[in-house]
Amino acid sequence: MRLRIPFRPSRPVRRALLGTAASALALLGAVVWFGFPYPAVDPDAVAARLEAEVRRTYDEAGLPPGSAPERGRIGTSSCYYRGLRYLAHFDQARPDVSGFSLSWRTEGVSEAAARAGLERTRARLTAAGWKPGWEDEHDPGAQFAHPDSGDKVTVDWYGPSSATGTYEVSVYADCGKLPDGFDPDAWSPAPPPPAL
What is the value of pTM for the model shown? Predict the structure, then answer.
């Protein structure tokens, strides 16, 4: 039995369909070769976002007075080629793409204070839709990821003794495409607000 096609598109329609199919195949080939593109980022806006999040998370820890944090600087991290281009640039960082991070830490924090701070952070972030990541089963520590931006917040407590340790809050921003001409080594984000 022969299958009959009740409708045969006209020549211009067939050409348009072939053109659309060719474009779709070219796009698929580009995605396979280059991978999905990194989103464009404004490094100053990312730095301000990370600064605000680390400050908020540190503030809600409610550490005793006089527990001023050792404030880190915004750091950049390597990001790699995507798609099949990764094979051509194996383990080679892209100069035009970067991740960002910031950490604050305080020494001499009790485990009870660290657990209370972590629980306040957990309540706020999960209520705002952040997804839990890893969690330390023994010492207070956990990571949370923002479902849209991919930003991560890590709260960790560690130390040489069981009485007191270091309370650390770190925030990370996923890799993003840097503006043309951006030099991470020469970049200095706007100064943060005064220390707590």
Answer: 0.75
Tens-digit pLDDT profile for the chain (196 aa)? 565 656 666 677 666 656 665 555 544 454 555 567 889 999 999 999 999 999 999 999 888 777 778 888 888 888 887 767 656 667 788 888 999 999 999 988 888 899 999 999 999 999 999 999 888 877 889 999 999 988 999 999 987 666 788 999 999 999 999 999 888 778 877 655 555 4
Which one, of 72, 49, 35, 53, lies nearest residue 195 by Cα? 72
What is each CA distance from 32 to 80, 90, 123, 157, 175, in whole angstroms?
15, 16, 40, 42, 19
List 155's β-bridge partners, or say none.
142, 169
CA distance 135 to 100: 22
Check if the beta carbon of residue 35 is closer than 8 Å to that of residue 83. Answer: yes
Write out the two tokens for 140.
């207070």
Distance CA 4, CA 65 (A): 83
How many angstroms separate the CA atoms of 160 and 107, rounded?
11
